[in-house]
Amino acid sequence: TLSRQAICQLPKAELHLHIEGTLEPQLALALAERNHIALPYASLEELRKQYAFTNLQSFLDLYYQLMGTLKTSEDFRDLMIAYLEHAHDDGVRHAEIFFDPQVHVHNGLDYNMVLDGLLAGMQYGRENFGITSSLILCIVRDMPVEDAHRILDLAAPRADELCGIGLDSAEVGYPPELFDEVFARARAMGLHVVAHAGEEGPSSYVEQALNILHVERIDHGVRAIDDAQVVQQCARDRIGMTSCPLSNRRLQVVDDISKLPLRALLEAGVPVSVHSDDPAYFGGYIADNYQALANIGFSAAELAQFAQHSIETSFIDEHERQTLL
Ligand code: HPA
Ligand code: ZN
Prior knowledge:
This protein has 17 helices and 8 strands. Strand 6, helix 11 (228-236) and strand 7 form a beta-alpha-beta unit. The protein has helices at 4-9, 25-34, 44-48, 56-67, 73-89, 101-106, 111-129, 145-155, 180-188, 203-211, 228-236, 245-250, 262-268, 279-282, 286-295, 300-312, 318-324; strands at residues 12-14, 92-99, 132-140, 164-168, 192-197, 217-220, 240-243, 272-274. It is globular, with a radius of gyration of 18 Å. The protein has one domain (4-316): TIM Barrel, CATH 3.20.20.140. 48% of the residues are buried. By secondary structure, the chain is α/β, with parallel strands linked by helices. Helix 5 (73-89) runs parallel beside helix 7 (111-129).
């Protein structure tokens, strides 16, 4: 199987990464102090004890709490630069990066300030690490649908500075169909379309994401395997599936990485790829996710297929794609 160095050298795209999920505990504490935000943790050691998650919600509670330490444009720029430097070390050539502006606006921040900070970091990454990147605005599915429309109102004037729209946060009880009009609006704005589905929710949520939201990629998609028709549709239409093994294990989506349906998806012809989700919370960046698969016996050829799928199902233009492959 592949060495760590060979894993890092595989040309790959990061397609499932929440920028807020790259906020390391040390940085959260430093930002809390700098921005005068009270956190209920007296020390790094005490904060670190909060990372023993039992499910998606137990993670989201901490994730949203620590997100409250991000206040200024520089905070977002610094967060982005730190991430892109790490991604570059792991051999990421291109990154399509989620952000959760509804949460930041609810925390009293200005949408344009957040966007400007992230874009400034991305420009730095392009100029200094040669890594291209774009942003996917994630709709927080457990906030009201009207709130999703309000964030699109704020995003619309600068829609050309975004790449796509996504759907994240607590899944069960918030099926994709709730957001059919939100996503139709985003598509009309020229945005690419993806959604988290089948992480904790059932395969019917994956089916809805495909046929009601018209997504081009499914994020996680673990439960797609329960419906052969959904798997076939993803294979036929080259719908990318962005798997995040370390996340799925830490959130107890599976009790062992070997129980993810990655081989079955590959054999069915689904362009599944490997990503890091929220690396500061789940114990590893993208190369660590590849490494975890190598450690349980995924072959060099299989790992290379994941990397190739990430480039195939990215939203870069055809010319750029050829230069990466
Ligand atoms: N699932 C749902 N929502 C999220 C995730 C995730 O893995 N990461 C950040 N928000
Ligand atoms: Zn995610």
